[in-house]
Amino acid sequence: MEALDKVRETELWKSMFRPGSVFRKGYKDTQRDRALAMMNNVLYHLHPVKIKRHGLKLTYTFCLGGLSFFLFTLLTVTGIYLIFFYRPTAGNASAQAYTDMLNIRNNVYFGDLVRNIHRWGAHLMVITVTLHMARVFYTGAYKPPREFNWVVGVILLFLTLGLSFTGYLLPWDQLAQWAVTIAEGISGNSPLIPDQAKFILLSGIQVNPNTLLRWYVFHVLFLPFILVLFLAVHFWRIRKDGGISGPL
Amino acid sequence: MPPREETPMDQAVFDATLQAELTKGTDRRVAEGRARAAGVRAYRKVHGEPEREAKPAAEREHAAAASGDGGGAAPSATAPAPAAVPAAVGASAGVMAYAPPPAAPRTAPPPTGRVPTARPGAPDKHRLLALVPPEGVQRVEREQGDRINVFPHLLMEEFVSLLVVSFFLIVFSAFVNAPLRELANPNLTPNPSKAPWYFLGLQELLRYFHPMIAGVIIPTLILVGLAAVPFVDRNPSTKPGDRKLAITIFTMLFMFGATLTIAGSFFRGTGFNWAWPWSQGLFFEL
């Protein structure tokens, strides 16, 4: 305990934890330190120092927005782990991607568990984002001044589906290939989606080995990047539009 | 902080103005502010402006710039301050100065298109002090509301919900494996072939409508319609009782989508034909 106090008095420690941090010596459970704890932390300061009391009520938000963000973070972490063991290449008779999938299942430490978390978490995120939208509708939280944040939310829902869908192809098994082929065929057979658009999306007129690399890039870089940009706007607008909506 | 200097003022004028304002029904705080302003003005009319009122150089330059030396735009109509101030430059720079309110609103100089350069001799630092006339001070009457600290209350709630979800997700993942079928084969179509579950509502619609309608028009309508919700529903109330129509429409559409998705997920078998899950089995993979 004394040694810990010594450490907490070093310049290094004090430079790392700004005033208001519970890790800093002399933290007191006062209004001031509670406020500083929020303001002086890069992650916490997404939140305001104080919120309306009803915002704490679980049955108002059901934590759905926060959980969507948490699942996105979890998917990022597990996804990064999976990237280490996965190569998005496929041929006609064999496929490195599929071999790597088997390898992740059978040989990689925690590979199976991490892949399961990634997949089930992805499905769960589609559900939480959809339910979050429903919650926002039922509480009327899209009404002025929050109209635009609802639009950003619709974009985020679309991006979530896009991320889930592009990830669906990556295992390169029968399920992936044909689920994507069918889904792509739902809208793909119309004259409104010309072959040029298909070449951009699929790198061909149908799902083929080249699609794999393209969707891999969509899945691990392009869509997350766009999603994070819109997430930033989404969170920022919550604050600028006056915090959580309500009470009803 | 140095102790606040009392500004000398004419007490008689102060009392008279305060009385007049209070009888008019002005809020006491505002009335006091106005009375003080009147008293100070009356005192200064008699005794003249005190020595320390000189404006710092930078501020005078600003005033001059603001009154329109960028392009020769009517300097005469603007604040008389620069000429009236005694030129005690530098001696008392930084002291908050009193200036009479400008006769006409100041206008910014028209843009010249060049990057402004520092004037020679201008100080490095600006003192950004606002001039607030006493009568401008008003109490803001805003409901603070019943607010609670985010730290620790909300953060604790978020943390617990995060732990609960993590726990169930990890336990579920430890026991239930995500599907991995045999290597993709473009020549071997599985029967049935189903899209990912969130598109199964659309695939279900494909059974009833032309692909153009089910595959293009309806998804576009859903996305555009969703984005347009706040601009179509102009009812400002958030009370469920006032929003019966909106809630009814949304609930019906949401349930409609959920029903289609469930039908496509669990009630479609080989050839995407109708199949009761209890007799023909489930044809559903995540």
Q: Could you characterize what this model shows?
A:
The complex is a heterodimer of chains A (248) and B (286). With 248 residues, chain A is an all-alpha fold. Helices cover 66% and strands 1% of the residues of chain A. Chain A has one domain: Up-down Bundle (Cytochrome Bc1 Complex, Chain C). In chain A, helix 5 (64-83) runs antiparallel to helix 7 and helix 7 runs antiparallel to helix 8. Chain A is globular and about 65 Å long. Chain B is mostly helical and 286 residues long. Chain B has 3 domains: 11-110 and 119-136, no CATH class; 149-180; 192-286, plastocyanin oxidoreductase (Helix Hairpins), CATH 1.10.287.980. Chain B contains 9 helices and 1 strand; from the N terminus they run H-H-H-H-E-H-H-H-H-H. In chain B, helix 1 (11-24) packs antiparallel against helix 2 (28-47). The model of chain B is unreliable at 57-61 and 63-95 (pLDDT under 50). The chains are: A mainly alpha (248), B mainly alpha (286). At the A-B interface, helix 3, strand 1, helix 5, helix 6 and helix 7 of A face strand 1, helix 5, helix 7 and helix 8 of B.
- The backbone outline of chain A, from C-alpha atoms, is globular
Secondary structure tally: strands of chain A: 1
Overall 3D geometry of chain B? Answer: elongated
The residue ranges of chain B in which pLDDT falls below 50 over 5 or more consecutive positions are 57-61, 63-95
What profile does the largest beta sheet of chain A have? none
Q: What's the multimeric state?
A: heterodimer
Give the fraction of residues assigned to helices of chain B.
40-55%
Number of helices of chain A: 11
Find the biggest chain interface.
A-B, 89 and 71 residues
Strand % of chain B is: under 5%
The CATH superfamily of chain A is Cytochrome Bc1 Complex, Chain C
Order of helices and strands of chain B: HHHHEHHHHH
Count of distinct strands of chain B: 1
Mean pLDDT of chain B: 79
Radius of gyration of chain A: 23 Å
**How many domain regions of chain B?**
3
